[in-house]
Structures are given as structure tokens and as C-alpha cells.
């Protein structure tokens, strides 16, 4: 069986290829040309799901010519409709309405030049449905690795307050995330967290932030909790769990929901200066330290919100890419 031989040749580029049983690339020239051609060849073929192309590069001067050659062979052999577009010095490979690959020149391209707008308008943003800057600070640290910029409700003072009328953490988180997403058209993350104390039948639970209503504060909530547990004298009987349910909502998408618990005990007195809410009273496992005595890094690694975030980070990329 014979295979068609494909060739492209000009004064500065010369490529020869054929369709075979596996991908393979050889290249004459210096190390720079070899590494560059290997990167382009293997990354593009992997992105396009190609496993049967063999190419020999006799001479390489322009990356775009190699990309064009590869695309042309793939179109002919696989009956695809790939196109190459040039944009501000970059090479884009598209098919139908999908952008499949982007190749940048050495040294990259200025964001403002490439997109025609400022960096502040570029990239994915996530609106955190809270005014609590303590929570926002924790989330900002967690999302930094994904390159996602965070905003909070403090950046949207005209948005109405969403009443947390649900009877469960998930119901309240959904109410906040989905309502605000509909109002703004944005991707929104809502967290409904609370403290569940076993001796109090799971209270304060979804009412954790409003435990000392009508005018609740962290100090008043902690004082009331100590009062409610005044007759529970054994530490082992003061077991509790911090709970967190996270919901990410976006227009025209099913919401993403994850949850986690952080077990511990309620201390007999406030300890620690960091954290917020019930942190100064929440003893972490058997450590004897409260959540308010942990550094932000220590807390994020083991807390209810940190554990829920780990689950979220595992599922978020797949969820975000769903249409």
C-alpha cells in the first residue's frame, strides 16, 4: 500500500510528510529549530486528536508555514475544515466556531495589543456573593492558582440583598449564587457556611451569622454560644463541626455544588486573634488550638471551606468548560 507524499518548499522552508501508523517528526537544523518544531508538531497534533502523521523538516524559518503545512495535510487526510488565522502576530487554528490552538511569537504579545483592551477587562472573573472581606480574602488565596480574578458584593453596591430563606446550607447558597448570577449575568460563587454544635441539636446551623439577632455581631454570637453551652462542662460533650456548601452559578448552566465538614470542639473561652466568626471558639480536633490561632495557610489547608474548595478545584475546570 502506498501513501501520498506531501511536500511544501520555498526559499526558507522545506517540509515533507505522509500519513502513516503513528506520529513521528525528524528535523535537520540547529537545536532551536528542533525544539520549536517538536513543540509545534506534538502540541497541535495532540490538540487535534491526530495519531498518524509523519513529517520530516529539511529547513524551517517561519513557524506559521509549518503550522499551515500540518493543517493542510490533516484537512486532506481527515476531511476536516481547519483554518489558520493571523491575529496581532499570533497564529490561531480554528474549526467551525471553535478556537483550537494559539501560537505566540517568541517573547509573547502585549495583552492590550492582542485584545485591544486593558488587562482589567481580560480574563475570567468570579463574583463572590458576600460582603464579608474575611471570606473574600480566603477565596482570593485559593483561586489565585487558577488565574481567576475575584470580586465581591462590595464591588456591586446597587445589587439588592438576597434573603437567605432556605432551611439548608445548599438552599441558601443556591439562592445567593443563582439569584445574583441572573441579576448580573456573571459567574457567581456563593458560600453558605455555619457552625453545627451537637449539644445544641445542630444549632446555630444555617442561622450561624444571625445567632444573636436582631443585631448580630461576631462578638455577640460567640457570647450567646458560650451562654448556651454554659452547663456543658466536659470538653468531649462540646463537639461541633464547621460546615461549608459552595455553589457556583452561571447563566444557562447547571450550578456546581460541593460541601465539606471540619470537626472540632467548642472551647470554654475565646482564643486567638486571626480569623473571624466563631474561629476564636472552635478548637481544631485534638490540637488545643482554635481556628483563630492558625495562620491563613494552615486554616485553608484543613478548614471546612478549604476542604470544600479542594473539591471545587477538582470539579471546576470540567464544569466551566461545559456548554
UniProtKB/TrEMBL annotation:
InterPro entries given for it?
Answer: dITP/XTP_pyrophosphatase, ITPase-like_fam, RdgB/HAM1
* Cofactor annotation: Mg(2+)
Q: How is the cofactor bound?
A: Binds 1 Mg(2+) ion per subunit.
- One matching Pfam family is Ham1p_like
Q: Does the keyword Hydrolase apply?
A: yes
EC number(s) given by UniProt: 3.6.1.66
Binding positions (Mg(2+)): 163, 192
Kindly state which keywords UniProt assigns to this record, in alphabetical order: Hydrolase, Magnesium, Metal-binding, Nucleotide metabolism, Nucleotide-binding
Q: Name one GO molecular function term.
A: ITP diphosphatase activity
Q: Which residues form the active site?
A: 192
**Keyword set includes Hydrolase:** yes
Name the GO terms of the biological process aspect. nucleotide metabolic process; purine nucleoside triphosphate catabolic process
Binding residues annotated for substrate, in chain numbering: 130-135, 193, 276-279, 299, 304-305
Q: What class of enzyme is it?
A: hydrolase
Question: Signal sequence: where?
Answer: none
Gene Ontology cellular component list: cytosol
Q: SUPFAM superfamilies per the record?
A: ITPase-like
Q: Which reaction does it catalyse?
A: ITP + H2O = IMP + diphosphate + H(+); XTP + H2O = XMP + diphosphate + H(+); dITP + H2O = dIMP + diphosphate + H(+)
Summary of the function given for this chain in its UniProt record? Pyrophosphatase that catalyzes the hydrolysis of nucleoside triphosphates to their monophosphate derivatives, with a high preference for the non-canonical purine nucleotides XTP (xanthosine triphosphate), dITP (deoxyinosine triphosphate) and ITP. Seems to function as a house-cleaning enzyme that removes non-canonical purine nucleotides from the nucleotide pool, thus preventing their incorporation into DNA/RNA and avoiding chromosomal lesions.
Subunit relationships: Homodimer.
Record-linked PANTHER family: INOSINE TRIPHOSPHATE PYROPHOSPHATASE (PTHR11067:SF9), INOSINE TRIPHOSPHATE PYROPHOSPHATASE/HAM1 PROTEIN (PTHR11067)
Q: Which family does it belong to?
A: Belongs to the HAM1 NTPase family.
This protein is called: dITP/XTP pyrophosphatase
The top of its lineage is: Bacteria, Bacillati, Bacillota, Bacilli, Lactobacillales
Amino acid at each position: 500500500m502506498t501513501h501520498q507524499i506531501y511536500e511544501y518548499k520555498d526559499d526558507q522552508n522545506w517540509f515533507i510528510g505522509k500519513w502513516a501508523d503513528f506520529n513521528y517528526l525528524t528535523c535537520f537544523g540547529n537545536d532551536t529549530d528542533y525544539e520549536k518544531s517538536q513543540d509545534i508538531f506534538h502540541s497541535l497534533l495532540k490538540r487535534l486528536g491526530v495519531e498518524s502523521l509523519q513529517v520530516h523538516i529539511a529547513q524551517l524559518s517561519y513557524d506559521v508555514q509549518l503550522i499551515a503545512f500540518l493543517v493542510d495535510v490533516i484537512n486532506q487526510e481527515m476531511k476536516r475544515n481547519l483554518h489558520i488565522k493571523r491575529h496581532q502576530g499570533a497564529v490561531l487554528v480554528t474549526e467551525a466556531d471553535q478556537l483550537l490552538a494559539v501560537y505566540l511569537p517568541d517573547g509573547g504579545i502585549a495583552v492590550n495589543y492582542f485584545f485591544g483592551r486593558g488587562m482589567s477587562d481580560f480574563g475570567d472573573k468570579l463574583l463572590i456573593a458576600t460582603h464579608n472581606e474575611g471570606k473574600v480574602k480566603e477565596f482570593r488565596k485559593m483561586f489565585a492558582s487558577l488565574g481567576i480574578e475575584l470580586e465581591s458584593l462590595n464591588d456591586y453596591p446597587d445589587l439588592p440583598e438576597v434573603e437567605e430563606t432556605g432551611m439548608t446550607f445548599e438552599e441558601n447558597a443556591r439562592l445567593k449564587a443563582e439569584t445574583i448570577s441572573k441579576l448580573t449575568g456573571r459567574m457567581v460563587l456563593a458560600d453558605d457556611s455555619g457552625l453545627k454544635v451537637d449539644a445544641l441539636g445542630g444549632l446555630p446551623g444555617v442561622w450561624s451569622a444571625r445567632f444573636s439577632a436582631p443585631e448580630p455581631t461576631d462578638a455577640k454570637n460567640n457570647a450567646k454560644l458560650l451562654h448556651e453551652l454554659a452547663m456543658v462542662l466536659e470538653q468531649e460533650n462540646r463537639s461541633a463541626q464547621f460546615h461549608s456548601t459552595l455553589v457556583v452559578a452561571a447563566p444557562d448552566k447547571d450550578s456546581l455544588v460541593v460541601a465539606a465538614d471540619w470537626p472540632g470542639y467548642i472551647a470554654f473561652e475565646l482564643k486567638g486573634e486571626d480569623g473571624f466568626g466563631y474561629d476564636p471558639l472552635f478548637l481544631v480536633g485534638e490540637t488545643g488550638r482554635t481556628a483563630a490561632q492558625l495562620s491563613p495557610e494552615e486554616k485553608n489547608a484543613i478548614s471546612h471551606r478549604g476542604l470544600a474548595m479542594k473539591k471545587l478545584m477538582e470539579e471546576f475546570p470540567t464544569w466551566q468548560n461545559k456548554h
